[in-house]
Amino acid sequence: MHGLRHDVPLPEGAPGNEGESPSELSILRDVLRLLPHGVTVQDEHGRVLLANEAAAAQLEIGADGLPAHAPRRETASHALHSGRAVVVEESLEREGRRKVLLTSHRPVRIAERNLLLSSSADITEQKTFEDQLFRSAYYDELTDLPNRRVIEHRVNKLLQTGGGPGFALAFLDVDNFKHINDYYGHAIGDALLVEMARRIGMNLRTSDMLSRISGDEFVLLLYPVQGQEEVAEFIRFMLERIKAPFFIDGSEIFASTSIGVSLYPEHGTNYDALRHNADLAMYRVKNTGKGTAAFFDASMEREADARMKIEQSLRMAILEKRFCCAFQPKVDIRTREIQGIEALVRLRDDAGVIQAPGSFINLATELGLIDELTHLVLAEIVKSIDLINDTFGHDATISMNVAAKQAGNADFMRPFARSLEQTGFPKRFMVEVTEDAFVTKTLFHDEILPLLRKIGVGISIDDFGTGYSSLSALADITADEIKIDRSFITDIHERPRSQGILRAIESLSEALGMTVIAEGIESHEELAYLQAATRIRFAQGFYFAKPVFLEDLRGSTPLASESRARPASRQTQETRTGYSRAPRYRR
Ligand code: C2E
Ligand code: MG
Ligand code: MG
After folding, report:
1. Quick check: CB of 578 below 6 Å from ligand 1?
2. Does ligand 1 have an atom closer than 6 angstroms to the CB of 357?
3. Does ligand 1 lie within 6 Å of residue 403's CB atom?
4. Is the CB of residue 145 below 6 angstroms from any atom belonging to ligand 1?
């Protein structure tokens, strides 16, 4: 019987032996032989009487006539003896490759004999695909860690059983990951995440679980834990491991992670509350220096509520355009002439009180409201240009601050540059950016800078010396001006170290053809030092003038939109103090 197991003849009296013509029989045999499904017939002892080609390829049949695969033997014998049909999924290992069969066993009675008729479909491919789907639904492809669904499920399971002696949930966020990604590229960023996941996941027990819940965020479940001290100690070691440099693709990278921890049951009784509170603790760490860990406490909740309120009022203020600008002159320290002015945004809050940007700029940036705010500042400058000219002169440059995040974003900078050009006096503008903007060096250099250069807008590096890259940034970026941060200038006359740094910045800037401005001059002594010991020519600071509101100089002309009320007393005070100290302005 060609193609079938020839050592096993079809049983006497089996269908096909009666009635059919020899040609029909041979067709049937060929059909059986060529069926894509494996077909076998086994006797009451499980011996294979008949197997077609597909079955022979799928199964190993021993010399005793029994299938080598033990589970198949068991199911077959079970089906035979119970007399009931079964459908089973069989996983076979052949020549190192996994095969999955979907087999239906059907006991039949043929020619007075109890036989088992089995047919198997090869579903290996479908199974592999299902497995992949399963993995991608529950596991992170990059790090191979379980994803948020898995850890949430696991915590819920723990909670259902009472949570044992207690557990901890840690929320981890890699610090400045976006910088690292932008600076080194995504491939290295990815490799860093993998290595970071490995370091975080070291020394875990099988009952713990580490999960990657998004980009650079991980959630770690520590179960069981006896108390805060135990968790604190474990995390201390983990932070130490993370601190060591990462060597990736020839680069030595220093990275850190901020960690917030909540404990069950003290800090929440469900996954969402625990995760949220761990997140709040992590947020606190981010705002107080990064790279460490904190346990949740109730003050964090109050902080978050307060932040939420500010957020709401900030959105409202943007909607109602409740912003105005104060202007602070940049002064030539030899002649006391005003060389330019810097626009510093102010917010009038719900109660009508004027707020300095320190209280809202970062939040506005975080919330994606900063672009709109910057356009509002520009609109205000344009609207007040006559007053600006009357007050500070027609040649005074006008500096605007742009957040690092905006400066590296072509989608903001392109329309912004267009708006600057449309003012009709783009050459008077300077854009002040902090060094953080240069982290995405190539983008800034190749795309953003030419955009501004083309329309004649100057570039100024703000708060120099406090940022991410400092001196190295200077070598790459051709800026027109560099503003030395106030922290170097304060009491400069009695701080030899700052004097040294100042000299270094000064000579470097000179070599690169950049104008140097000293920020935050408050005292005569500071000014006297600059004049005597440096060649720095320009300065800004309360000593010369505090930021002023134009409308206070020309009481009758409101700067703000007509609907805007004249803000409260702080404004006038800001102005008065400024001008009493600077009697020698041009106007
Ligand atoms: P900045 O650009 O470095 O501006 C200088 C800041 O120092 C201003 O604070 C100014 O009032 C203050 N200042 C000037 N001279 C002195 C001094 O002698 N002593 C002291 N103690 N402070 C002095 P302000 O107005 O609160 O602004 C803070 C920061 O907010 C600015 O720092 C700038 O980074 C940001 N900012 C202001 N306006 C805008 C804006 O329109 N957009 C963006 N993105 N950021 C802005
Ligand atoms: Mg500035
Ligand atoms: Mg500054």
Report:
1. no
2. yes
3. yes
4. no
Tokens coding 459? 């570039």
Supply the residue whose CA is at minimum distance from atom 8 of ligand 1: 344
Q: How far apart are the CA of 229 and the centre of ligand 1, in A?
A: 42
Q: 420 and 455 in contact (C-beta within 8 Å)?
A: yes
Q: What does DSSP assign to residue 105?
A: E
Q: Which residues lie closer than 8 Å to 295 by C-beta, 6 or more apart?
A: 228, 231, 232, 260, 261, 262, 263, 267, 281
Q: What is the DSSP string of 488-524?
A: HHTTGGG-HHHHHHHHHHHHHHHHTT-EEEE----SH
**Mutate which of 331, 372, 401, 549 for ligand 1 pocket (most atoms within 8 A of beta carbon):** 401
Model confidence pLDDT, tens digit, residues 351-360: 888 989 998 8
Look up residue 389 and give its two tokens: 């000219």
Four-residue CA torsion sign, 565, 570, 575, 576:
positive
539 lines ligand 1 (CB under 6 A): no
CA angle 314, 318, 319 (to 5 degrees): 115
Strand partners, 53: none
CA of 342 to the centre of ligand 1 (A): 9
- From CA 546, how far away is CA 520, in angstroms rounded? 10
Q: Is 379 in the pocket of ligand 1 (CB under 6 A)?
A: no
Task: Pick the closest to residue 431 from 357, 377, 472 (CA basis).
Answer: 377
- pTM given for the model: 0.61
3-state secondary structure of 397: strand
Confidence category of residue 333, pLDDT binned at 50, 70, 90: very high
355 lines ligand 1 (CB under 6 A): no
139 DSSP assignment = B
**Distance from C-alpha of 261 to C-alpha of 164, rounded to nearest angstrom:** 18
CB distance 149 to 271 below 8 Å: no
Return the best residue to mutate from 328, 344, 464 for the ligand 1 pocket (most ligand atoms within 8 A of CB): 344
The pLDDT tens digits of the residues spanning 160-214 come to 998 788 999 999 999 999 889 888 999 999 999 999 999 999 999 999 999 999 9
Ligand 1 atom showing the smallest separation from residue 356 Cα: 26
The dihedral built from the CA positions of residue 149, 151, 156 and 161, taken in this order, carries a sign that is positive
Going from the Cα of 485 to the center of ligand 3, the distance in angstroms, rounded, reads 6
C-alpha to C-alpha distances, 280 to 149, 198, 270, 489, nearest whole angstrom:
21, 25, 16, 36
Atom of ligand 1 nearest to the CA of 547: 11
Distance 499 CA to ligand 3 centre (A): 18
CA gap 51, 41 in Å, rounded: 7
**Closest C-alpha to 570, from 552, 585, 556:** 552
Q: Rounded distance, CA 211 to CA 271, Å? A: 14
